[in-house]
Amino acid sequence: MNACLRFGPLALVLAASAASVAHATPTVFFGENQTPSNTVTGAPATARTSFLSYLASGVTSQGFESFTLNDLGPLTLTFVGSASPITATLSGDGQVTNNVSAGRFNTTPAGSKWWDVSGDFTIDFSSPISAFGFYGTDVGDFNGQITIDLIDTLNRVTHSVLNNSINGKNGALLFYGFIDGTNSYKQITFGNTAAGTDFFGFDDMVIGNLAQVLPPTGGSTPEPTSLALTGLALAAAGFAAGRKRRA
């Protein structure tokens, strides 16, 4: 089994309307398994367990089981907040599917569906969140890397490129999550450096607001990660020729 597990602070590149503004960095939780055999196992499951351990017990996970196959955005999912429900609205590229023939697969226990995507999609939150996580499947086998833009409540942008394996195996699994005990975010946009060529599955989203982030207990701090980052302007990356069809 080819797997990697990393926890650590996410380096930030911030842009305000006129100047950069520094603020505390979120902690990132990342695990990847190149040979999961369509199951949730190994480093991604470990990373998710660690991520959840920093959150209150009421935090919930949502897959796509309540939607109809081939549903397009916008889709709205509802999560338990500290005081009232939080809705997350997905819009942009993607559709609900359950076809595992192309390498993507469901990660929800007893479920069958996920969000199948190649291009950009955005998640808007009805109230600010400070914790976010998801499982991704079949990422990077056609040289794509996931890009993530976080928009905080002051409209500052944090741009990063997820350090998933490039030109890896078909059907890989990863978990990505972050927790920020200082800042809150109102929007997340996902992109793909090989949009239209490399597709991936997005499933089992977890969100939590600042009140649901547990205070430090004095335990061990995750080791710094080698998560690859870019500036706000994404540098173009070469990728292999070929086209991966949406199943």
Helical fraction equals: under 10%
Report the radius of gyration as a whole number of Å. Answer: 17 Å
What is the number of domains?
1
The outline comes out as globular
CATH topology: Jelly Rolls
From N to C, what is the helix and strand string? EEEHEEEEEEEEEEEE
Going by CATH, the architecture would be Sandwich
What does the main sheet amount to?
Answer: 8 strands, antiparallel
Describe the structure.
It is globular, with a radius of gyration of 17 Å. By secondary structure, it is mostly beta strands. The C terminus is likely disordered. The relative contact order is 0.25. It has 1 helix and 15 strands; from the N terminus they run βββαββββββββββββ.
Features:
single chain, 247 residues, mainly beta, Jelly Rolls, 8-stranded antiparallel beta sheet, 7-stranded antiparallel beta sheet, 1 helix, 36% strand, disordered C terminus
Task: Map the helices and strands.
Elements: E1 3-9, E2 14-15, E3 27-33, H1 43-53, E4 61-62, E5 75-79, E6 86-92, E7 95-97, E8 114-117, E9 121-129, E10 131-137, E11 146-152, E12 157-161, E13 173-179, E14 185-192, E15 200-208
Antiparallel strand pairs: 1-3, 2-12, 3-13, 4-15, 5-6, 6-9, 7-8, 8-15, 9-14, 10-13, 10-15, 11-12, 11-14
